[in-house]
Structure formats: structure tokens, C-alpha cells
Amino acid sequence: MVLLVYFALPFVVFLGRTGSVPVVETLLQTTSRTAVRNSLLTAPVATAISTVFGVPLAYVLARKTFPGKRLVEALVVLPLVVPPVVGGAMLLSVVGRFTPIGAAAAQVGLPLTDSLVGIVLAQTFVAAPFVVITARAGFGSIDERLEQASRSLGCGPIATFRRVTLPLARRAIVAGVVLTFSRAIGEFGATMMVAYNPRTIPTRIWVDFIAGGIDAIVPLALALLAVTLVVVATVQRFAGVPTVVEQ
């Protein structure tokens, strides 16, 4: 109960400040609209990339044994352990403008820093582990005999994965997708290091906070909260995914 009050009190007090702040007018400003647009463009892309590559990796980790598996598991968890700012610095050491990869990308007109691509790279780095870890737990909870039965009935490995494994792990996978999106759209530390410009909602919030304090960030903070809640509610409504607590 004490922890619930601790969670709820900041929300209640923060939302109580909305009455003295011109929320609509602030969100209609060009800087705010641009930040919202950038976040809504990049976070879904980062989530899609994380899902496309993360779900197969989760299945391999759940079902296969191979040399170096513990190292792979550690690498998956590492972005969650490393502070986001440090993670951003690590990314810069690979894709920065003066690195071989970053310089080559810039030459072909696709800069990997201070661009929407850079934002996606930062978001994917910090958010992808959520879908991998959650999906792996979902795959691990499936009785392997169900997959073996499918194979014995003539289904190949891909067909078994698509018709048996994925539907059974669907709830865990979608829950991981929700967590990944929520983490991606709220990412600040790594994004600030890799792509401080163009602004996303979190980086715009930081700029506004420096300039005007807490009241100045209320509109965009509400927008960020609203987007996250709408996505979570929509996924739960149409995918039948329980809340994290229910899982």
C-alpha cells in the first residue's frame, strides 16, 4: 500500500498543475508538434525493428543450447544495465560522424547521428531487450510436446512456429512489444547523446524544463503519457493482453 501511494502521489500532484498551464496552446506550437511527430515516427519503427529481430532471438534462447549462449544472454541484458547516457556514448563510438560506419553513412546521405535514423538507433538499443526477455519467457512456458506433436503431423519447423508456437506465446510477445514501445517513446539519455536534434518529446521536455521549470513541461509530459496510455489500452483491447501485474 505504501508503494502504491508512492507511485500515485507524483502523478496526482503533477496532473494538478495542468489547471494553470496553457496545455492546448503549448502543444499547438511548432516545436511541440515537431517533437510529437518525431516521437510518433521513430518509436514505432524502433519497436518494429526490435520485434522482427528480437522474437526469433528470443525463441533461439528459449529452445536452443549452443556455445556462447550465456554471452548472448548477457549481451541482451546489457543495455538494461548500462545507464542510457553511457549506452548512447557506446553507440557514438560505433556510428558517430568520425567513425568508419558513421562517415560512410553520411557520405551516402544517411547520417546516423543528429537525425531520425539516429533516434531510432538509440531507441532500439535501449528498448529491444524488453521484447526479447518477455518473448523468451513466453516461449519457455510452452510445452515442447505441443511443437513435437505438430512436427509429427507433418508440419515443418517454420509452419510449427507460425501455427503453434507464436499463437501460444502471443500474449507474452505483445506484452513485450508494449513495453518496448513505451520504453522507446520515452527514451532520453541515449537519444540525447546520439541525436539531440531533431527533438523528440523527451528531449523537447528537457529543453523546456531548463528554460521554464516544471510548469513548462506539463503539456508535452501529458502528451507523452497520453500516447503511451492509448497504445497500451489499444493493444490490450484488440490483442487480449493482460497488464504486467496480471501476468
Distance between the termini: 20 Å
Number of helices: 12
Structural class: mainly alpha
Major beta-sheet overview? none
The CATH superfamily appears as: MetI-like
CATH topology: MetI-like fold
Assigned CATH class = Mainly Alpha
Mean pLDDT figure: 90
CATH architecture: Orthogonal Bundle
Strand residue content: under 5%
Give me the strand/helix succession: HHHHHHHHHHHH
User: What is the 3D form?
Assistant: globular
Number of strands: 0
Number of domains: 1
Brief description of this entry?
The protein has 247 residues and is mostly helical. The chain contains twelve helices and no strands. The chain has one domain (23-238): MetI-like (MetI-like fold).
SSE diagram, text form:
Elements: H1 2-15, H2 23-27, H3 30-63, H4 69-81, H5 84-95, H6 100-107, H7 116-140, H8 144-152, H9 157-185, H10 189-194, H11 201-212, H12 214-239
Helix pairs in contact: 3-7, 3-9, 3-11, 4-7, 5-7, 7-9, 8-9, 9-12, 11-12
